[in-house]
Write a structure and sequence with these properties.
The complex is a heterodimer of chains A (114) and B (115). Chain A has 114 residues and is mostly beta strands. In chain A, 0% of the residues lie in helices and 57% in strands. Chain A has no helices and 11 strands. In chain A, the strands form 2 sheets. In chain A, strands 2, 4, 5, 9, 10 and 11 form a 6-stranded mixed beta sheet that branches. A 5-stranded antiparallel beta sheet of chain A has the order 1-3-8-7-6, with no helix packed on it. Classes of the chains: A mainly beta (114), B mainly beta (115). At the A-B interface, strand 4, strand 5, strand 9 and strand 10 of A face strand 4, strand 5, strand 9 and strand 10 of B.
């Protein structure tokens, strides 16, 4: 079953605008990761944030994590047409024995219009 | 290129046939994972290996599915007596155990269509 849920399911913006995607999850986590997937392709790792971190930056990406609300957000600033893709959050669970698998949400489809 | 590779990239088969997929992880990575992804959904965990040992299997992995990693390097995923419901993208990922905060690197996937 899917642990996380991304919101919105689909997002369409103009090039240059910022895009914000949210992820909620259900159980205690060790870390949360964001991945990007272009249509029909494999997943590309974007960023990992640990459960004891609140914010992390990587280039045009900014990720926040609120473990009290069990939620995370991914902000892409100054979006480009090449950012068009599906974005998934994935959680690494805290429970021993299950800490290795990632549990993915159903994704946000981002479309950046030129 | 030293990323995760998968072969074949596409497979079309008839219901009832067996299929086998191969995954070559990043060379120094000791963990290897298989996931399945259906249209419009995120990947779902199937199984993972640490070196040659298969340490965890999902309930999604029915008796018709078997995975191996005989020498702790490449892995194969076999589906026997395929069903139309097996149609999906099969993704492989690998990671290196280091700090416990490991990143999984994914291959391009094998898209399976069962007719």
């Amino acid at each position: 079953s899917q642990q996380g849920e991304e919101d919105p399911q689909a997002l369409s913006i103009q090039e240059g605008e910022n895009a914000t995607m949210n992820c909620s999850y259900k159980t205690s986590i060790n870390n949360l990761q964001w991945y990007r997937q272009n249509s029909g392709r494999g997943l590309v790792h974007l960023i990992l944030i640990r459960s004891n971190e609140r914010e992390k930056h990587s280039g045009r990406l900014r990720v926040t994590l609120d473990t009290s609300k069990k939620s995370s957000s991914l902000l892409i600033t100054a979006s480009r047409a090449a950012d068009t893709a599906s974005y998934f959050c994935a959680t690494g669970l805290l429970s021993s024995g299950s800490a290795r698998q990632l549990t993915f949400g159903s994704g946000t489809q981002l479309t950046v219009l030129p | 290129d030293t990323g995760v590779s998968q072969d074949p990239r596409h497979k079309i088969t008839k219901r009832g046939q067996n299929v086998t997929f191969r995954c070559d992880p990043i060379s120094e990575h000791n963990r290897l994972y298989w996931y399945r992804q259906t249209l419009g959904q995120g990947p779902e965990f199937l199984t993972y290996f640490q070196n040659e040992a298969q340490l965890e299997k999902s309930r999604l992995l029915s008796d018709r599915f078997s995975a191996e990693r005989p020498k702790g390097s490449f892995s194969t995923l076999e589906i026997q007596r395929t069903e139309q419901g097996d149609s999906a993208m099969y993704l492989c990922a690998s990671s290196l155990t280091r700090t416990g905060q490991e990143t999984q690197y994914f291959g391009p996937g094998t898209r399976l269509l069962v007719l």
